[in-house]
Design goal:
It contains eight helices and 17 strands. It is of the alpha+beta class. Strand 4 and strand 5 form a beta hairpin. Helix 1 packs antiparallel against helix 2 and helix 2 packs antiparallel against helix 4.
Length: about 400
């Protein structure tokens, strides 16, 4: 649950990442695991190799320790804070992060359609148990007049705080509230159009001139050596443990157990493969007056590369949305009648490392959405693309396609 306060004409909702002392504790545990794993590896390999089981266990503990060290001392959420400021005096909703103070994301009150509230049940694995337990999540979204959905905050099993905050926002702004909680609009604000001028393109936007338009790529920041080693360590753990389990059971086990373990490992590796695809995915967008061509590239898995062209008349909108937990996404809304040469294209395009939330899909229905780019909320200015880059691309595509979006 986020903390919120009202000071005069301002309502502030503050969300914090992992606390420094807790993450430091994770890092210290990682140091002990890493040292213990290294000692175990040395003792099982020298003067001559020992049992493969103990070698694998020692290796996994070493890699796990390294991942814990990096998570504790280099986690992107370490000391991360983000504040949503609803300022009645300035008539703006501001999204400000301590990683991106120079480029806050502002939404004028006259661009706001309403506040939307949703709730849904979710399943959570019980701590130390194979059983699952359900909980209810309550979310508050700000809906712009162009239909963009901006996640504000959420509460877990706390309908009372959810109701109080929703009421406070409605009282301060006079916005209409729809969904789980409903309030009529008590105030309207002069419309100044759908938005202010777009920011300038950042250095992480690569533009290449083509025959009929430009190709746009949102470049990923270069991975630093410690982060690369962390990824290798994490992948080693996830690849090695299930594979070793399957090998062990197939070497000495009864047939039903072999089949069960094989099915489990296959499902695990399938999910792991999708996660890797989401990380490797590169989206290239070529825009011209006739429409948009999207090319998805998957690096080492080039056999999955695919492209599609969407005519202008089939495009409904281009929007920057704020996803659950504050991450940002640039998405393309298209007609439900569009058919793709590669039926897997929408699935591959929407592969994501962030939770979009089923609740968000309830807000504006009858839309078919293609995700173009997503960026994490904790990205530091100058170290990777930010929401400013997405806003620039949104405005550029809208102008190129001459879109005239209808207000929601």
């Amino acid at each position: 649950m986020d903390d919120w306060t009202i000071e005069g004409n301002e309502l502030k909702i503050e969300r914090r990442g992992g606390p420094g002392c807790l993450l430091a504790g994770v890092g210290i545990i990682g140091i002990f695991l890493f040292c213990g794993g290294c000692i175990g590896l040395y003792s099982t390999l020298y003067p001559e190799p020992g049992e493969p089981f103990f070698i694998v266990i020692s290796f996994v503990i070493t890699m796990l320790g390294y991942v814990f060290i990096m998570a504790g001392f280099r986690s992107p959420v370490r000391n991360f804070t983000e504040t949503v400021i609803i300022d009645r005096g300035a008539q703006k909703v501001r999204f400000v992060s301590n990683r991106n103070r120079d480029y806050p994301f502002d939404v004028p009150f006259h661009d706001v359609s309403h506040i939307h509230t949703v709730s849904e049940s979710r399943m959570d694995s019980g701590s130390g148990s194979s059983t699952s337990r359900s909980y209810r999540i309550y979310q508050i979204f700000l809906i712009k007049k162009d239909g963009a959905q901006l996640w504000i905050t959420q509460f877990r099993n706390d309908p009372e705080s959810f109701t109080k905050l929703t009421g406070a926002i409605a009282d301060l702004t006079g916005f209409a509230v729809m969904g789980e909680i409903e309030f009529p609009a008590r105030e309207t604000y002069e419309s100044g159009g759908f938005g202010a001028s777009a920011p300038s393109p950042g250095r992480f936007i690569k533009m290449t001139a083509g025959t009929e338009g430009y190709e746009y790529v949102l470049k990923k920041p270069a991975m630093k050596l410690p982060d690369l080693l962390t990824a290798v360590a994490a992948f080693s753990i996830f690849l090695l443990i299930p594979g070793y389990l399957a090998f062990s059971f197939w070497s000495s086990g009864i047939l039903p157990l072999k089949i069960l373990i094989t099915a489990f490992v296959s499902i695990f590796y399938a999910i792991f493969f999708l996660v890797v695809l989401a990380m490797l995915k590169e989206c290239r967008v070529s825009a011209c007056g006739k429409g948009i061509e999207i090319f998805l590239r998957f690096s080492v898995f080039r056999f999955l590369d695919t492209r599609t062209f969407i005519p202008r008349e089939e495009i409904r909108y281009v929007r920057v949305n704020r996803l659950e937990e504050g991450h940002f996404s640039l998405s393309l809304g298209i007609s439900r009648e569009v058919r793709f040469r590669n039926p897997a294209f929408p699935f591959l395009a929407n592969l994501s490392g962030f939770r979009r939330g089923y609740a968000a899909a309830k807000i504006i229905k009858n839309e078919k959405s293609i995700s173009l780019w997503e960026i994490p909320c904790w990205t530091k200015s100058g170290e990777g693309p930010t929401v400013s880059d997405l806003l620039y691309l949104e405005k550029t595509f809208q102008d190129t396609l001459r879109l005239r979006e209808e207000p929601v």
